[in-house]
Structure formats: C-alpha cells, structure tokens
Amino acid sequence: QVQLVESGGGLVQAGGSLRLSCAASGRTFRTDTMGWFRQAPGKEREFVAAHWWIGTGTYYAANHADSVKGRFTISRDNAKNTLYLQMNGLKPEDTAVYYCAARTGIKNSALPNEYDYWGQGTQVTVSS
Question: CA Rg, the chain, in Å?
Fold first, then answer.
C-alpha cells in the first residue's frame, strides 16, 4: 500500500524557516514526479513545487510556483525515499496545510488532478 506521510510543519514567525519532509513507502518513487501543494482555509489547493526525473542517470529537474520562487526549494533523497521542501523567508500568506503528492511518469505537473498519491498534510502557520 502506497503511503505518503508529511512532517515538519508548525508555527513560525514571519521571516523564519521550516523544512517539510514527506516519507514515501509502498513503492519506489525514484522515477516518479513528486510535488508539494498547499491549501489555505476557503481557498483551492494550489501548486507549490514539483520535482521530476529527467529520464537519464540520477538527474532531476524542479519547478517552483512564482509565489515561492527564491524562498522555497524542493528536493529528494532516494536512498531514504523522502521528499523535502525547504521554506525560508516565510510570510503570513504561506499559512496553509501542505500536502505531498506523487505521480507515476515523467511530467512537470502543477495540476492536483494529475497526481496519483497524496499525503494527509501538515499545517504550517506563519505569524506576523
């Protein structure tokens, strides 16, 4: 059974940092596209970042939403089957539940409905 379990959320002051982790089990995600999304109260789930295998060797590419570019960084550790999101320079508008997601195949996808597997989410709250 495929499981994605997020951790690392919490309460932080504006300007602070957090690192989210997503531990994957039940399959090997080495060649999968993995992503982070977030959902604030009353808003739709929105794309944060994606990370995908480029099809050769151990090389990956990444894409970040404009709203987090330069502040957030997505990465993965295949040996640990874990996806990360390093978040620096946090702002109150980053407050949301953050979800890890995975999809089979190589695709730079920012659409939630293109992902096959989801975690339960971890709350990030940024105070001003």
Answer: 14
